[in-house]
Amino acid sequence: MTILPPHRLDLAGHRQRHGDLRLPGPGFADVIAAANVRGRGGAGFPTAVKLRAVRGRRPIVVANGCEGDPHSHKDKTLLNLAPHLVLDGIQVAVAAIGATDAVLCLHEGSPVAAGVAAALAERSDPVPVRLAAIPPRYVASEETALVHFLTSGDARPAGKHPRPAERGVDGRPTLVDNVETLAQFALLARLGLDGYSPADLVTVTGAVRHPGVFEAPPGSPVGALLARAGGETEPLQAVLVGGYGGTWLPRDSGELVSGISAVYALPARACGLGYTAKILAHLAAESARQCGPCMFGLPAVAADFAELVRGGDATGRLARRLPLLTGRGACAHPDGAARLATSALRVFAADVSAHLSGHGCRVLAGAA
Asked: Where in the chain is the domain with CATH 3.10.20.600?
């Protein structure tokens, strides 16, 4: 059974496609573990571990549908076409941990908000789901930022300890899962392990014939993901896997990728350094500005890349700065920026040399 239907399904169409939902008991974490379901919000963390960690009175389920990465459209597509699959998944999670409340988070002004509200109006669930509008900033959808916002109205990451499963919204144990992960819950609850076939939703954009959101088995080669989008429209220089906080790979990389939300195909005529510099500037501007790596490290690295594009030699500073970003922030935002920048220096080494020699290269218009 595929995740995405060919068109939007109302509740009747959803039930015709998937059948009735039987809610599981507390042992559902064992099913999730056996199916190796991992978080689809970017971290790829084993979901069964999160389920088992939620202990205590009056737990809460928080569904994350914010999707702050500009390269990813999978969650919006899922919520637009199959909102009831996500809402079913929320009820499965509620039953699995004995939750008494459920919240579905979307960014303010989300184009899918009206459709999700209409889907909620069609349902009568054991635990009603309320919608929460989150400020449309990149880090506002990080799980501790969601918990912090739902508790205090401040959408900034709250640090790595304690985790939401221990003390989340209003101090209560909280399960925070991406909406695609929850859709997998709904499929597993219906199909069981024998009938379940894992698939990831991946957004493929850039220089491809048919950009869009596609389903692919975990561990697909990069080339296979590009082929799902009709193949490239022109020669490629590299591909960015995992969105703005992801990793650059050479076009001919045979690497297998799992759990990534987005693939961007960069044309050979583009400047990889220029494209990366624009992304880094965006990441620096979108930080919560509450810890050193974000307040000082990200703007410095973005400035270093801008200097490389202009032909200045910032490679020494980057070699010193990038290792200092990883693992030191209140959230993983600086880690993603460091990963992106480090991979760019490796994959676009020829661009670095061209800029330092004064020749430069052509920057793709509208890269950010």
From this structure: 200-267
Cβ contacts of 225 within 8 Å, gap of 6 or more? 202, 204, 214, 216, 257, 263
pLDDT tens sequence across 28-53: 999 999 999 988 866 678 899 999 99
Q: Which residue has the tokens 């060919």?
A: 6
Instruction: Indicate the CATH number of 200-267 among 3.30.420.40, 3.40.50.300, 3.10.580.10, 3.10.20.600.
Output: 3.10.20.600
More confident position, 295 or 78:
78
**Whole-number Å distance between alpha carbons of 19 and 89:** 14
CB count within 10 Å of CB 191 equals 15
Domain 272-356 architecture? Up-down Bundle (1.20)
What's the predicted TM-score (pTM) here?
0.93
Q: What are phi and psi of 353, to 5 degrees?
A: -60, -40
| CB-CB neighbours of 235 under 10 Å | 10
pLDDT of residue 41: 63
Contact 291, 330 (CB under 8 A): yes
Tokens of 272: 């990889």
pLDDT 10s digits, 292-309? 888 889 999 999 999 999
Sole residue written with tokens 């695609």: 180
User: Which residues, other chains included, contact 287 with Cβ-Cβ below 8 Å and sequence gap of 6+?
Assistant: 138, 139, 294, 295, 298, 333, 334
Angstrom distance (rounded) from CA 64 to CA 141: 7
